[in-house]
Amino acid sequence: MKQILFPTDFSENSENAIRYALNFFKDIEAEFYFLHVSTEDQFENSALFVASELVIDQSVVSGASEKLEVLIKRIQNQFKNKKHKHHGIHESIQFIEAIRKNVNHKQIDCIVMGTKGASKLLDTALGSYTADVIKRVKCNILVIPENAKYCDPSNIVFPTDFNINYTDKVLNSLSDILKLKKVKINVLYISKKIRDLSVFQKKNRAHLQDYLEGKPHSFYFITNENIDDAVETYVRITKVDMIAMVAKNLNYFERILFHPTVEKISYHTKVPFLVLHE
Asked: Which residues are in the UspA domain (predicted)?
């Protein structure tokens, strides 16, 4: 049974991510944990701030717990799935600490978070949290942009520079997706110049080819000075449903996810990202 964690601030972006993931995991047995973390700002802005610290805590905790109950009841009414179980969790500690605590205690397989678009990850509250989770929590994370609409994925792109070893955990996570949705994995290598792969890159590519043998996949090589333009063009032409990346490949990863040219890049606002950790 898969264990899925949903950090939620009860926003529309957050609920859109929840709806997407419930559909994505609809065919497997899973337990879903809906986590709300009360921040210091919520306590400071409370109408009872002048009251005792205990009263403030009870007021905020009570409100969050009620919202979690309402959320879970609404989900159970909208998504009647006997394979799924739902739990609400409220924490009043630092956000990353709360994520790590529940990932470890609940043995979470995947975190699902909504965002207003990867181009705004560092400019919004939930967005900055998403970026922190990707960088600081060693757990697979499915990032759902604000304009993402669910459809059964059939075409997933896997951008890579072949500069990392692909561990069994990463490859097994890819394999799980292939089995879950019967999708095709398109391995995408983007280079600024036409040049041969290094010995190390060739070794990693061969390892990936061996693992994917017998599974639906293709390898594509693109030359483009701008990596964002290359990904944008590829996503648009091939109608990609999801982008899967390895978090360890940080330099390559950050250029795609955290440094887009906002005026030209649109896939950040509608194509989900699956970030794989070792």
From this structure: 1-145
| Comparison of pLDDT for 230 and 252, the residue scoring more | 230
Taking alpha carbons only, the member of 215, 205, 227, 229 closest to residue 178 is 215
Buried b (16+ CB within 10 A) or exposed e, 99-118: bbebbeebebbbbbbbbbbb
CB distance 227 to 199 below 8 Å: no
Alpha-carbon span 278 to 225, nearest angstrom: 29
Distance, CA of 100 to CA of 155 (rounded, Å): 31
Dump pLDDT digits (tens) for 104-141. Answer: 999 999 999 988 644 444 444 335 778 788 889 999 99
pLDDT tens-digit series, residues 156-212: 999 888 988 888 888 998 888 888 888 899 999 988 888 899 999 999 999 999 999
Q: Say yes or no: domain 155-271 is CATH 2.170.190.11.
A: no
Residue count of the chain: 278
Identical fold for domains 2-145 and 155-271, yes or no, is yes
Contact 81, 2 (CB under 8 A): no
93/16 Cα distance (integer angstroms): 25
Distance CA 143, CA 131 (A): 10
SS3 annotation, 202-248: HHHHHHHHHHHCCCCEEEEEEECCCHHHHHHHHHHHHCCCEEEEECC
Judge: domain 2-145, CATH 3.40.630.10. no
Give the domain ranges of the chain: 2-145, 155-271
Using an 8 Å Cβ cutoff, are 229 and 264 in contact? Answer: yes
